[in-house]
Amino acid sequence: QQQVKQSPQSLIVQKGGISIINCAYENTAFDYFPWYQQFPGKGPALLIAIRPDVSEKKEGRFTISFNKSAKQFSLHIMDSQPGDSATYFCAASNAGGTSYGKLTFGQGTILTVHP
Amino acid sequence: NAGVTQTPKFQVLKTGQSMTLQCAQDMNHEYMSWYRQDPGMGLRLIHYSVGAGITDQGEVPNGYNVSRSTTEDFPLRLLSAAPSQTSVYFCASSRLDIALPYEQYFGPGTRLTVT
């Protein structure tokens, strides 16, 4: 059972373009939504995260948009650069209680930014 | 700080063999976990621990054992390796709070092939 669905599986963008990756979740108890970035041969690293009390969070060129009623959230990468080429994972967790922040990941999106 | 370290980086096993994947962290994190990463499936939680002596199952625990005798170490044991356990394994750690999500730090991974 895939509780977090991510699309697209792969994405090719030209340098300077906008990359958009979408995720949808089913569990309404989720209250923490991080995005992880993974370069080949490395472990995932936290990129940006949001909690459902805000609809948008921006850090530099990276923005998370969150739609609680639709149970969807997305990552926007503005002015995409070749160095952004990586695999991106959305994730979700119920931060409190006995879930102890266990992360449920989406399937991943391979982003390629052409120079 | 070395962060989260994993050994070995690569391993080839024959079906039926057993082995232990090592994970250590030097950040005094209470929470540690193991994930496996398979193409098109994201990362899936195998086992996790909220402190020394406390472990619990994640989404895909069958065929794996864990123990947590110290805060720093969280080894993953494959009891009788099967080809279905061919994967990349990541260990992660974070601080733990009953109400707040903390960033999970991932190790560099172990690529395991079972023939």
Q: How far do the termini of chain A sit from each other?
A: 38 Å
| Tally of helical segments of chain B | 0
Main sheet makeup of chain B: 7 strands, mixed
Quaternary structure classification: heterodimer
- Tell me the total number of β-strands of chain A: 11
Share of helix among residues of chain B?
under 10%
Radius of gyration of chain B: 13 Å
Estimated helix fraction of chain A = under 10%
Secondary structural class of chain A: mainly beta
Beta percentage of chain B is over 45%
Average residue-wise pLDDT of chain A: 93
Rg of chain A (CA only): 14 Å
Largest protein interface, residues of each chain = A-B, 28 and 29 residues
Write the layout of secondary structure elements.
The complex is a heterodimer of chains A (115) and B (115).
Chain A: E1 4-7, E2 10-14, E3 19-25, E4 33-38, E5 45-50, E6 56-59, E7 62-67, E8 72-77, E9 86-92, E10 104-105, E11 109-114
Parallel strand pairs in A: 2-11
Antiparallel strand pairs in A: 1-3, 3-8, 4-5, 4-9, 6-7, 7-8, 9-10, 9-11
Chain B: E1 4-7, E2 10-13, E3 19-25, E4 31-38, E5 42-51, E6 54-57, E7 64-66, E8 76-78, E9 87-94, E10 105-106, E11 110-114
Parallel strand pairs in B: 2-11
Antiparallel strand pairs in B: 1-3, 3-8, 4-5, 4-9, 5-6, 7-8, 9-10, 9-11
Description:
The complex is a heterodimer of chains A (115) and B (115). Chain A contains no helices and eleven strands. By secondary structure, chain A is mostly beta strands. Chain A is globular and about 45 Å long. Helix content of chain B is 0%, strand content 50%. In chain B, the strands form two sheets. In chain B, strands 2, 4, 5, 6, 9, 10 and 11 form a seven-stranded mixed sheet that branches. In chain B, strands 1-3-8-7 form a four-stranded antiparallel sheet, with no helix packed on it. Classes of the chains: A mainly beta (115), B mainly beta (115).
